[in-house]
Design brief:
This protein is an alpha/beta fold. It has 13 helices and 11 strands. The strands form 3 sheets. It has a 7-stranded mixed sheet with strand order 5-2-1-6-7-11-10, with helices on both faces. Helix 2 links the parallel strand 6 and strand 7. Helix 8 crosses helix 9 and helix 10 crosses helix 13. It is globular, with a radius of gyration of 21 Å.
Length: about 325
């Protein structure tokens, strides 16, 4: 992993990247990462707040990186050094995964790497990114997105979400959950979740307590054929009112949230157990193996069998009735493992 550094980068994003990939958690079962701080030279790089970053590699080391991470900026129009921009262009041409946190999207845009591509940044910077880089298709509201192996994320906490998502893609849900527990942060927020959640009113606060209980109820019964109407009834609301309050409180719809939790449950079962695919689908609440397979293809660009093969910690049994291996699920492959 390479953290690209130059004057003007944001200390918070540097800390997030370092906490996720620069902390040894192998004693808790997390993968071993090799994070390098890469810059044009090895001179200390000043950061806001009296901090400084000491690079340990120069830009030529990017040739060895599986993943290149670009922190956000204190001043979002800070020009990146030309050698940095050139190195990022070469890395993308090689097929290396690039990921920018918050205002790091501006650095990628300066390199021309976002021209004609979809990107996201902090909701308060969307207009600024559009104004200075009109060739970029700026997505107005998401936590993180990917286009042509280039990831961009919204502000602050969304950078943590993206980092954990990249760990999950490369090393599985359990590895990401281990890191999230260590950081005392939520292990699973999808990129499609809204950045900005409506400010609660006193009534909304009471609803939020009810909705938290409903989510806990759902998580304990994922194996059951729950519907949005079932959850609304448990909350004592009409389906329309429930959906409105749920989205305001969580930034996502009840149906999407329920599907995300079922996918996460299936991932854990595939990693931790040798249960046959139909039983995994049943316990995760998909109803059928075919339905589970369809959602894995749509959300994860892989199949349950391929996911288990990549991330399992047990020996899965042969299942001659499972034909997933012959299916083309589409999408891009996860970053190098």
């Amino acid at each position: 992993m390479a953290l690209v550094a130059f004057p003007g980068i944001r200390a918070f994003d540097v800390s997030v990247i370092t906490e996720v990939w620069g902390t040894d958690r192998t004693d808790r079962g997390a993968p071993a990462f090799d994070l390098r701080r890469v810059a044009a030279d090895t001179a200390p790089i000043p950061m806001r707040g009296g901090l400084s970053l000491l690079p340990d590699r120069t830009l030529t080391w990017l040739d060895q990186a599986d993943l290149i991470l670009i922190p956000g900026l204190d001043d979002h129009l800070t020009p990146a050094p030309t050698p940095v921009l050139d190195a990022l262009r070469r890395a993308h041409t090689r097929g290396t995964t690039l990921a920018a946190l918050c205002g790091g999207a501006f650095t990628l845009a300066q390199a021309g790497l976002l021209d004609g591509r979809r990107a996201i940044t902090h909701w308060n910077l969307v207009d600024l990114l559009r104004a200075h880089h009109p060739q970029v298709t700026v997505v107005p509201d998401a936590l993180f997105i990917e286009d042509d192996n280039i990831w961009t994320a919204a502000g602050t906490a969304a950078g943590i979400d993206l980092c954990l998502h990249l760990v999950r893609r490369a090393h599985g849900a359990e590895a990401a959950a281990t890191i999230a527990r260590s950081m005392v942060t939520a292990p699973f927020r999808t990129g499609t979740q809204a950045q900005f959640i409506e400010r609660p009113t006193p009534r909304a606060d009471r609803d939020a307590d009810t909705l938290a209980a409903v989510r806990e109820h759902a998580l304990r019964r994922l194996h059951e054929p729950l519907t949005v109407a079932d959850l609304a009834a448990h909350a004592g609301m009409s389906p329309r009112s429930f959906a409105r309050h749920f989205t305001a409180a969580t930034g996502t719809t009840p149906l999407r949230w329920l599907l995300d939790q079922r996918i996460a449950a299936a991932q854990k079962l595939l990693e931790r157990t040798d249960l046959p695919m139909p039983e995994v689908a049943r316990r995760a609440g998909f109803g059928s193996e075919v339905t589970m397979r369809q959602h894995f293809a749509s959300r994860l660009a892989t199949s349950p069998r391929a996911y288990r093969s990549a991330f399992t910690t047990t020996s899965a049994p042969e299942d001659t009735e499972d034909t997933e291996e012959t299916e083309d699920t589409g999408g891009s492959n996860p970053i190098a493992r």
